[in-house]
C-alpha cells in the first residue's frame, strides 16, 4: 500500500491523484454546490422570469408596432393609388384642355385670316372700282376733247341743224 500511497500522494513536483477528502476540499465544494442548488433556482428563476416577461412584452410591442405599420402602409398605398388616379385624371383633363385651346386658337386664326382676306378683297374691289371710274372719266374726257377738236371741222351749218332737230325730237319722245 505504500506504493499506492506514494502514487496517490504525489510529490510536489509531479502529477497525481489526491484521494484525501479534507485536503482536496471536496466537502467544501459539496457544501457550496448544495447551497447554490438550494438558493440559486429561486434567485436565478426570478431574474430569468422577469427577463422572460420583458422579452415577451417587447415582442408584443413589436407585433403591435408591426400591425400598426402594416395598417399605415395599407392606408398609404390606398392614398398613393388614389393620388395616382387623380394625377392621371388631371393629366387627361390637361391634354383635353390643351387640345380644345389649340382647336379654338386654330379656328380663331382661320376666322381672322378670312376677315383679313375679306378686307383685302373689299379693298381690292374698291381700288379696282376707283381705277375703273378714273379710267372711264379719263376716257370720256379724252373722247370729249377729241370730239370737240374734230367737231368744228366736220360739222357744217346743215349737219348742225339736223343734229339739233334730231336731239329735240329725241327729247320730245322721251
Report on this model:
By secondary structure, this protein is mainly α. The chain has one domain. It has helices spanning 2-8, 21-24, 26-154, 157-173. The longest helix has 129 residues, at 26-154.
Spell out the key features of this protein:
mainly alpha, 174 residues, single chain
Q: What's the alpha carbon Rg, rounded to whole Å?
A: 67 Å
Q: Could you list the spans in which at least 5 consecutive residues all have pLDDT below 50?
A: 1-11
Number of helices: 4
Round the mean pLDDT to the nearest integer and report it.
83
Strand content: under 5%
What global shape is seen? Answer: rod-shaped
Main sheet characteristics: none
| Overall helicity | over 70%
Secondary-structure element order, N to C: HHHH
Count of strand segments: 0
Q: Note the gap between the termini.
A: 188 Å
What structural class should be given to the helix and strand makeup? mainly alpha
- Into how many domains do the coordinates divide? 1
Task: Describe the structure concisely for a colleague.
This protein is mostly helical. It contains four helices and no strands. The protein has one domain.
Topology of helices and strands:
Layout: H1 2-8, H2 21-24, H3 26-154, H4 157-173
